[in-house]
Amino acid sequence: MLQNKNVRLILAILGVLFLSYVLWNVRSIIYYFFAAAIVAFIARPLVRVLGKVKIKGWSIPNWLKSTVVLATFVAIVVGLFRMVIPTIIEQAHIISKIDTKNVVSRLQPHIESVSSLIEKANIDKVELQNIVQKEISKIFSMGDIGTYVTGFLSGITGTFIAAFSILFISFFLLKDGSIVDNVVGSMTPDKYLDKIRTIFNETKDLLTRYFVGVVIQIGIVMVVITVGLTILDVKNALLIGVIAGIFNIIPYVGPIMGALLGIGLAATGQLEAHPDLSMTSFLLAAIIPFAVAQALDNFVLQPLIFSKSVKAHPLEIFLVILAAGSLAGVLGMIVAVPAYSFIRIVAKEFFNGYKVVQGLTKDL
Questions:
Q1: Are 237 and 88 found together in one domain?
Q2: CA-CA-CA-CA torsion sign (59, 63, 69, 75)
Q3: 241 and 132 share a domain?
């Protein structure tokens, strides 16, 4: 009897190791599935809207609804790329034409304004200027875009495969909405089946609200910054707005990173167009759209998205994101809220007898 238990234990360990090995080697497929799930979450409200459309009693079939929504998404993404890619090339040419020595001389007054701090730190001013010029030269050495184009073309096949796989999986997640539920249900013991179904339904609704909210958040931030920079007559304002919106996906630190990069790109464009421009006054003006977008995001968008959609306190969300960032860096911060929401739903169904769980899931 003991020998049989040992054999089963060894077989179970070998099975887990083999499964882990297989999952690790097909991890790209897992990434595609999760990306497709996010697309499906975002598309669900639109599919529901199309489901309400009836023409003389005829309803749009699921396959057509899914196709229309995904085709719309593809058209939007392709259109955005067609608008942004020419500005990326233009921005690269602008950066390549900038005289780095002139930039350093423009920065020299600002360096001298903190000369007392430099002297206290025993730093040689000439050496500091050489370091600054060297670093700026590295930043602005993007003129030869051939290398970047070659790298892009070498990865275009993988990108196409990834895009096709994500769209293919998304289509069936939308068309056959219960396909994952059925697969998981077939592997779940009957006594847990109701709880698992509840978990899946609540997770779908909660994550749909969250990801749709994130898309709206990115769109609003993008529009605010693009319009603000356009008013200031900044070159390639759309590109800067798109970059800032994408960086905004990263909670808390993302907007700061996006603002620094965006203001840097705006400054390089203005230096090329207006060499005699007062950089200090321009930077102070360029900060305004980013500050407005950040204030709107912090005080309106994030409370609505994080607190209302996932039904958690802002402080609770902040601590979760901070912990996830410490454990897994930027990626952890991005997936922190969806993962935490799913964990709360599971805990509510299986561990609701504990006071801690009751407190964390009382609003679900």
A1: no
A2: negative
A3: no
